[in-house]
Amino acid sequence: MKRRLQFSASLDLLAADGARQRRFSVEAYDGGKLPVASFEQPVVVDLNTSIIPGSIPLLIDHTQSVDSTVGSTDSIISDGKTLILAGVVSGQSPLVQRVLAQHDAGQSWQASIGCLIDTDTLETVPAGTKATVNGQSIAGPCYIARRATLKETSVLPSGAAKQTSVNLAAAAAQSLKGAAMDFQSWSESMSIDEAKLTDSARAALQMAFDEEMNPPDPNAEGVPAAATALINLRGTHSAEHRRIGAIESLCVGHPLIAAAAIDKSWTPAETEIAILKANARMHAPSNIIHASSNSGTTPQHLSAALMVRAGFSSAAERAYGAKVMEQSRHLHARALPDLCAAALQADGRDVPHERGSMLRAALSTGSTPTALGDSANKIVVEAYKQAPAAWRSFAAIKSVPDFKTATGIRPTFGGDLLQIGPGGKVKHGSYSEETYGWAVNTFAKQFQIDRRDIVNDDLAVFADIIPGLARSGARTLNGLVATTLLANTGSFFGTANDTYFDGAATNLQASSLATAVQMLRQMKDGEGNLLDLQPAVLLVPPELEQTALALLNSTEVARVSTGDELPTGNTLKDIAQLAVEPRLSDAGFSSYSTTAWYLFSDAANAAAVVGFLDGRQEPTIEEFGLAHDIDALAVGFRCYFDFGCALADFRAAIKSKGAA
């Protein structure tokens, strides 16, 4: 299976120089881990085994069209450890010209690199282990893409990459012109450690140094454009590291300001002004609510971030979409308290400096409780769907609007249609004896997550507790279905209904299964009409699973005697699908049996029904903030599930005692 992968990188759109065309350069990949939407763990692209073409297009926002094509690469450098791209800006469309004009006016841009990966070649590096790739020792957990194909790179607005800047190296490069220095001094002036250069990188830098010291004729052919692009990249990279280092040293205790400063290319001086303003606001009451927020963060972003951190990124992308997922990754929230701070900012509220006050403000009202509850519900639905449920193969699913006893009609009540005689009178049918009653009930549990767990960034509530509640709900429903079958209310499975047989020869074997198939096919309605029922599901306890697999899957049957010239083919192969329910033989359930087995027709025939209130087939999680219970400094969660089960149409299934 092949999937597209995109990751962000720094982008330079270099200005044209004389007769030269405008160029771009991208320091595409450093060989490390990449956070990728729809993957629960980071991805490392193995540059040594990937397919890197000679040229790829530069697009706008991953749109493949003539108007959106900015240019193409003429240099792709990969030394097995890093990936560097450079090329010519050749696009002439109005859209391309707007991008260039905005760049010249000071707009920052980033690049997003697109790869096609073969998921069949993905290798998993578990937590606690390491793998060597791209010349680095990579610690798990992560995936290694051993076979990826570089397809394109795109121009996107600034903000998706942590370290994105444009043309910062231009001034530094100009200052070197005319300076007499050797290659080592020239490298050191751009913060490049010559001793750590690979052979290919050294060769490219040597070309750039030679061109810098002896500028070629701009009209001459064969100008090493890739080297020029590389020097600009290195200078930009060094300057950007210095800017980010200064910002991080200023922003201790202000992670959101640090994130904004890095993303928006603020200078250290601009960052310091923002910190002074924030400190001044912290003296105001923390419950001030502003009319609007310009952060762009919504509860959906917070929910997606929570789900990703808990290991449910695939479910988050299905629920919120790739765009929200990508945006949520750039909240720069390294811990749950960071998400609480982001939620307050999204609500247009001041973020208290003291962590306890900040958590109380975020967890009492606003976006945080909404995000906690929404992400919890998404996780519980995903975990519930993954839980085993044998009943889904043979029980009909119903919906009711309330908890009152509902009256159902057996699907096989109707009898055959009758031909209309002279006069056109239609004969009445009756279903008064063909009904059954059933109702749903509520099953629930509650729990709390202590404020200390949130401060400590304990994700057990999302990674373990909530999925555990979902599985608990699934097990509770499985238990109710098994209890209902074993109770056999009103001799549902009984000789009077032609739905039950016992005896020494009724243990699960070819002859007894053939008897059950015959009984099901010959089943008639109350008016004596054949129902045309087909065997669909063989339900057994674990003790009979291997026998059932042999009966349903074997191609041939070994005969006891020979010379009778009878066929040896298995006439029961694939006659039904197998379902295994361990509760049927569990001593904790009344009337359990290790020998009894069931043959069901299609679930639509409703031998059994499982019903849900308002059709909701998964548990529901409700969140209660810190303000809900004055006696507990904790966030509360309540899980409840409304369902019921009943035996419905006795004609739709056969039971064998499996013993005398």
Description:
- This protein is an alpha+beta fold and 660 residues long.
- The chain folds into 3 domains: 2-246, no CATH class; 282-383, no CATH class; 489-558 and 569-609 and 648-656, no CATH class.
- The longest helix is centred in the C-terminal third of the chain and has 28 residues, at 460-487.
Question: What can be said about this structure in brief?
Answer:
With 660 residues, the protein is of the alpha+beta class. 32% of the residues lie in helices and 22% in strands.
Structure keywords:
alpha+beta; 660 residues; 3 domains; 5-stranded mixed beta sheet; 7-stranded mixed β-barrel; elongated
What would the average pLDDT be, to the nearest integer? 76
Strands of the widest sheet, in order across it, are: 1-2-6-5-4-12-7
From the spread of the alpha carbons, the general shape counts as elongated
Structural class: alpha+beta
Set out the fold topology.
Layout: E1 2-14, E2 23-29, E3 43-45, E4 57-60, E5 69-78, E6 83-89, H1 94-104, E7 109-118, E8 122-125, E9 130-133, E10 136-139, E11 142-145, E12 148-157, H2 169-176, H3 183-188, H4 199-213, H5 225-250, H6 255-263, H7 268-281, H8 299-309, H9 313-320, H10 322-328, H11 336-346, H12 355-364, H13 367-386, E13 395-400, E14 406-409, E15 435-438, E16 441-450, H14 451-455, H15 460-487, E17 500-501, H16 510-521, E18 537-540, H17 545-553, E19 577-580, E20 597-600, E21 608-613, E22 620-624, E23 634-647, E24 653-656
Parallel strand pairs: 3-11, 4-12, 13-21, 17-24, 18-19
Antiparallel strand pairs: 1-2, 1-7, 2-6, 4-5, 5-6, 7-12, 8-11, 9-10, 14-15, 16-23, 18-20, 20-24, 21-23, 22-23
Helix pairs in contact: 2-5, 4-5, 5-7, 8-9, 8-10, 8-11, 8-13, 9-10, 11-12, 13-15
